[in-house]
Structures are given as structure tokens and as C-alpha cells.
């Protein structure tokens, strides 16, 4: 039977891979290779110092430079990053939040140098600070000034770079933090309402142009393995967005109300055990955001099969790129109208999700909106509780994870054969080179011009003046990321978000096992002479706190007294808290790859403080060879994603504490 020739194919979505590491020069080479392989957009991963507004030579940047993304410290780095890449044709996504305004100004400043008209710039800045307080942790400033930075960026962008999406509201990270589909929809849309209200109330955009603001709003979503439900979730999001923008903001143009979203499919569900299974997981998740034509993603980036092990190599990213290309170009998916129109099953599920999301949106609005629900700890508590329940179901075997809690028997994987480098590693010399380079950059610029530009930024921040132009002026004279953020820290202050740990409860089928370990904790406390206390710490700049929060919740539930102060602590701060609180064990969570730098600093600090009897345990994405090295440096135990039984982990920690005190 001949292939049909009378159907017009849809244009494929923007095909991206999320990439960047080590340095601007190495990342530029990676981007060029990816574009040559058929990638149609760029998705820039920035390292944690850049994301949190620090230069490479700041104390908190130690061990983090170039690890989870590219360091961009000034306009020189941005020039190098986009060297040879036609910015007039590029569609660039930048995953940057608290300093989103700053990185966008660097991008605009380099485009100006290239002679690219600003109205031709196309792309997206990830600029959703609410989800940073809830899940990802790369916030800097308190909510009010953070919303001001977002409003300024959106208002300026609509006027000056009209093809740019100045924000994507991120439901992706909410799902990673445990959100159910209705919570994910509700909290993302509550954030969008807060942002649109802030832009409207700032008075920077005339009412007759507010539709342009709505038209440039985008979303960044997640899609898990329940791909039918996930597809329905996206149809529900499109319906809710259309209703909100029409009813609340009076936008009449259907094109401006259309849901615009990009996606990276779920990374939380990728497994360290039998990681080859992640390939089919990624493909199935991709179907959720492509099958429904009326709710199809505008841009897609896929994780690699080995991201539960560490930083993917270029070949791994190529594999993920080819998955998209096979679906877009080899199948007939793009030849048809929406496959689900008229399906009573799909319509019923969409209606259920819409109803649940609306109820939760109303609850948040009654509290005063998304910002108030962040400050009160309500939304964070809901996410921590939802993730605790999901972990309970996995531990109890109620939710099956192939290769983890069922079907564990396996053959050796040729993808991880002996001698094979299964993940990309960042040269330890990267950080030293970046420190040397940033110091040389400061020495080589016009110091007076820098001080003048920073002074103008400081003065503007104290008023309601839009900060984009002052930031562009800073970029063009060579101000650094740390300096820009430092000035705003002076004016706005900093913020520590609620942890949500106190709200979570674990029950159900896990209760019996928890009771057994709780009895062990009680007996150990009696043997030692005081209630067992655990400090859970997040050293460095890694803000992904889901694992740390779940460990803190389970430790509390088995009877430990838990000290958890949240994210972004120096090793010295963790040591000081451990000594002051008289804890019996320190548990560190590190997901950014900085474990060989920050963890030994905590061990050495405890020894120097005379706390030799306090064992240190570590959890995170830690390769076996690094785990062995940490053991040599004094770490008592290393836990990785395959150690999903948190109660069993607590039991092992009790044994370590007893051994450290020579107690039975």
C-alpha cells in the first residue's frame, strides 16, 4: 500500500539537548557539534555559581565551577559561548533563574556586538523564581524583589525583544519535588497568575498591550511514565490557561491565549539500577508531550540514559537527540489531526484534572496567592508530603520500578563494561583556570566604568525604575555575575525558604517497619545516654533538596531528633551546627558532583573540632570510584539512588552511631 501523499505534515517542535559544562569554550564546541547533528535549538545549562550569582573565586563556589553547567561570569564568557553561532537564527533557551535578568542582558549585549537587531532574538529565559523556593533551590533574593526582577524583565522584553519568551513557568521541577498532577497544574498556574498580576500592577505595560505579555508567557513542563495521564495533564493545562487568560485578564485573541510550552521529560524516574531501562522510559515519556496535536510541546529536550549516574557524554546526548529525530521524521505522527478528540476516556481524565487543579488554585488564591503560599510554607509542605507518599509506595512495592523494586535479576550491562567511561567527567583543573581567568578579567577592565555602572544599578534598584537598561550597561563595561548579584543583595537582601519537613507524614504499609527501627533508635539512645540526633546538610550550592528532605522526614519518623537548616551551607557552617547541636551523625546530600571537594571538608572540620565520634554519611549521584575515595577520606557510608529503602538506611545509620560510641 503506498504512503499517503496528500497530508501536510506539521512542522516539528524545536529539538534541543540540555548542555554545557567546564567552560564557555568547551560548551561552545559542544553546541556547534550538536547543531551540526540536526539540533534546531540550544538549551544552555549554567553551573551553580552562575545560577546563584557568584563568581568562580567565591568561597561558596568551591567544588561547583563547571560541574552541572557552563560558568558565565561576564560578557567575555558570553561572547565565547556563542562564538560562530548565528544569534539572529538561534532559538536559545537559558536555564537561569534568580540572575535571569543578568544572563539575558549579557545575551542581548553580545547580540548588539554581532549587529543582530533585537527584534530578531528568539528564545526563552527560565525565570520562575517561585518554583526555586519550592524545589530547585537556586533562589537568591526574597520573593518581593524577585518578582520585581521578573516583572522588569518581562515588561522590557515585550517592548524590545518581542520574539523572546522572558519567562517559562516551570511545572517540571514541581513534579520532580513530588507534586501530583493536580498540584503540578495548580501551583504552576498560581505562579503564572502571580507573575501576570505583578506585571499588570507594575504599570509598565499599557492595558492595550497586555495581550502581548500573555502571548510571550511560556511553560516548562515534565512528563512522567504514566504517559496517558501526562498527556491528559497537558490538555488540561491548555484548557485552564485559556480560561484564566480570557476570564482573569480579558485577553480576546486566541493566539495570545494559546499554551506555549517546552519540555524535558522526567529525570526523577531515571534509575541507577539497570540504567539501560531509562532509554524506553525516556521514549515513552516523550510520547506524552507529542501524541496530542492540540497540546503538543513547542520544544523538547530529553535527558540521557545515564543521567542517574552522572554527567552524560556527547554520545549519550546524541542518542537522546536521535530519539526525537526518529519520532519527528520517520513516523507519521505529524500527519494527523489530534488523535484524542472525541475520546470519552481522555475527556473524563482531563475534566478530573481540571477540577482538582481549580480547587487547589482557589485554595492558594484564598491564602493570598503563590508568593504568600510560599512564605507560609504551605506549598512546600504539600510537595514534601506528596513525595514522601510516593517513596512509601515504591518502598512498599505498591508502585513498581523495573530493575529497582521488581525484576532486579540482570545481566552485566555492556554500556557499563569494565574500562568504559560511563559518564562525562569535569577536569579538576577547570575551577583553578576559571578563578585565574576571572581575576585577570577584573584586572583588565576599566575600573572606573565598572564602579559607575554598578552605582547606577544600585541607585536604580532603590527605586521602581526598570533594571534591564542599567544591567545592560553593566554587562557592556565588564561587570561580573557576582558583582551584579552582590549589588542587588545589598539592596534586596537574601532569603531562606521554608523546608517543608515538619509537614510530611509517612504511614500506611511502611508504619510497621518504621516502628521496628524506631525501637532500635530508642534503645540506642538509652545505651548512649541521650536521644539520637542527626544533622542533615546540603553543602555547597546544590539546591536540589528533595533527597535531603526525605531523609530528614524518615529520620524524624524513626525517632531521631533532626537538625535540618536547608540548602546552601558551607562545610564550616555544617561543622559548627553539628558541634553546637551535639549531633551523633551527619548526613550530607550532594547531587552536583562536588562531593570530593565539600564532603572531606566536613569530615576534616569535625575532626579538627574534636568530634571524631560523629560518623559522616553521604547520599547523592556518586560513582563507585568516588565512593571508595570518600571512604578513604573518613566517610562512614555512601548511599546512591539504588538505596531507595530509606528505613533500611536509617537502620544502618543506627548501627554506625552505636559503633562510633562502642555501644551495643
TrEMBL record:
Keyword Isomerase: yes
Superkingdom of origin: Bacteria
Residues of the B12-binding domain: 531-660
Family matches, as Gene3D superfamilies: Cobalamin-binding domain (3.40.50.280), Methylmalonyl-CoA mutase (3.20.20.240)
Similarity comment: Belongs to the methylmalonyl-CoA mutase family.
Assembly and interaction partners: Heterodimer of an alpha and a beta chain.
Protein name: (R)-ethylmalonyl-CoA mutase
Source organism (scientific name): Pseudonocardia cypriaca
Amino acid at each position: 500500500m503506498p504512503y499517503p501523499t496528500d497530508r501536510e505534515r506539521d512542522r516539528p517542535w524545536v529539538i534541543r539537548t540540555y548542555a554545557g559544562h567546564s567552560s564557555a569554550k568547551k560548551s561552545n564546541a559542544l553546541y556547534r557539534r550538536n547543531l551540526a547533528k540536526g539540533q534546531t535549538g540550544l538549551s544552555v545549562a549554567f553551573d551553580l555559581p552562575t545560577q546563584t550569582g557568584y563568581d568562580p573565586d567565591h568561597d561558596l563556589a568551591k567544588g561547583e565551577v563547571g560541574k552541572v553547567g557552563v560558568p558565565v561570569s561576564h560578557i567575555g564568557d558570553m561572547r565565547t559561548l556563542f562564538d560562530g553561532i548565528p544569534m539572529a537564527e538561534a532559538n536559545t533557551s537559558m536555564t537561569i533563574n534568580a540572575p535571569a535578568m543578568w544572563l539575558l542582558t549579557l545575551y542581548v549585549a553580545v547580540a548588539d556586538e554581532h549587529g543582530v537587531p533585537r527584534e530578531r532574538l528568539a528564545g526563552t529565559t527560565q525565570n520562575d523564581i517561585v518554583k526555586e523556593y519550592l524545589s530547585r533551590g537556586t533562589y537568591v533574593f526574597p520573593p518581593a524583589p524577585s518578582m520585581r526582577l521578573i516583572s522588569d524583565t518581562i515588561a522590557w522584553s515585550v517592548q524590545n525583544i518581542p520574539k523572546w519568551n522572558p519567562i517559562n513557568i516551570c511545572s517540571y521541577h514541581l513534579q520532580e519535588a513530588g507534586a501530583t498532577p493536580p498540584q503540578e497544574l495548580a501551583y504552576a498556574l498560581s505562579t503564572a497568575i502571580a507573575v501576570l498580576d505583578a506585571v499588570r500592577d507594575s504599570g509598565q505595560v499599557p492595558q492595550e498591550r497586555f495581550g502581548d505579555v500573555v502571548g510571550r508567557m511560556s511553560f516548562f513542563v515534565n512528563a512522567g511514565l504514566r504517559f496517558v495521564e501526562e498527556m491528559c495533564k497537558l490538555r488540561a493545562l491548555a484548557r485552564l490557561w485559556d480560561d484564566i487568560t480570557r476570564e482573569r485578564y480579558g485577553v480576546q485573541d486566541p493566539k495570545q491565549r494559546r499554551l506555549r510550552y517546552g519540555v524535558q521529560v522526567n529525570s526523577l524516574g531515571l534509575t541507577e539500577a539497570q540504567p539501560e531501562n531509562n532509554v524506553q522510559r525516556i521514549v515513552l515519556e516523550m510520547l506524552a508531550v507529542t501524541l496530542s496535536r492540540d497540546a503538543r510541546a513547542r520544544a523538547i529536550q530529553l535527558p540521557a540514559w545515564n543521567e542517574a549516574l552522572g554527567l552524560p557524554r556527547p554520545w549519550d546526548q546524541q542518542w537522546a537527540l536521535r530519539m526525537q529525530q526518529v519520532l519527528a521524521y520517520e513516523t507519521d505522527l505529524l500527519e494527523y489531526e489530534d488523535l484524542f478528540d472525541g475520546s470519552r476516556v481522555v475527556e473524563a481524565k482531563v475534566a478530573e484534572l481540571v477540577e482538582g487543579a481549580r480547587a487547589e488554585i482557589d485554595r492558594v488564591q484564598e491564602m493570598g496567592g503563590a508568593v504568600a503560599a510560599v512564605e507560609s510554607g504551605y506549598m512546600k509542605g504539600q510537595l514534601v508530603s506528596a513525595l514522601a507518599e510516593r517513596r512509601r509506595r515504591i518502598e512498599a512495592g505498591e508502585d513498581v520500578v523495573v530493575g529497582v523494586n521488581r525484576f532486579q535479576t540482570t545481566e552485566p550491562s555492556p554500556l557499563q563494561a569494565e574500562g568504559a567511561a560511563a559518564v562525562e567527567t569535569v577536569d579538576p583543573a577547570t575551577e583553578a583556570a576559571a578563578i585565574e581567568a576571572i581575576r585577570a578579567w577584573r584586572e583588565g577592565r576599566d575600573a572606573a566604568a565598572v564602579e559607575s555602572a554598578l552605582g547606577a544599578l544600585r541607585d536604580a534598584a532603590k527605586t521602581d525604575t526598570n533594571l534591564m537598561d542599567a544591567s545592560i550597561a553593566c554587562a557592556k563595561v565588564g561587570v561580573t555575575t557576582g558583582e551584579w548579584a552582590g549589588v542587588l543583595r545589598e539592596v534586596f537582601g537574601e532569603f531562606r525558604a521554608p523546608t517543608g519537613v515538619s509537614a510530611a507524614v509517612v504511614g500506611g504499609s511502611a508504619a510497621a517497619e518504621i516502628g521496628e527501627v524506631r525501637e532500635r533508635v530508642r534503645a540506642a539512645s538509652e545505651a548512649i545516654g541521650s536521644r539520637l540526633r542527626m544533622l542533615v546538610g546540603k553543602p555547597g550550592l546544590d539546591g536540589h533538596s528533595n533527597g535531603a528532605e526525605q531523609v530528614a522526614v524518615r529520620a524524624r519518623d524513626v525517632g531521631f531528633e533532626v537538625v535540618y537548616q536547608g540548602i546552601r551551607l558551607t562545610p564550616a557552617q555544617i561543622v559548627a551546627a553539628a558541634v553546637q547541636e551535639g549531633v551523633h551523625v551527619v548526613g550530607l546530600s550532594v547531587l552536583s558532583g562536588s562531593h570530593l571537594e565539600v564532603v572531606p571538608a566536613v569530615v576534616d572540620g569535625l575532626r579538627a573540632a574534636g568530634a571524631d565520634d560523629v560518623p559522616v554519611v553521604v547520599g547523592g549521584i556518586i560513582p563507585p570510584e568516588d565512593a571508595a575515595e570518600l571512604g578513604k577520606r573518613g566517610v562512614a557510608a555512601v548511599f546512591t539512588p539504588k538505596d531507595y529503602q530509606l528505613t533500611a538506611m536509617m537502620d544502618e545509620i543506627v548501627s554506625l552511631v552505636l559503633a562510633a560510641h562502642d555501644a551495643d
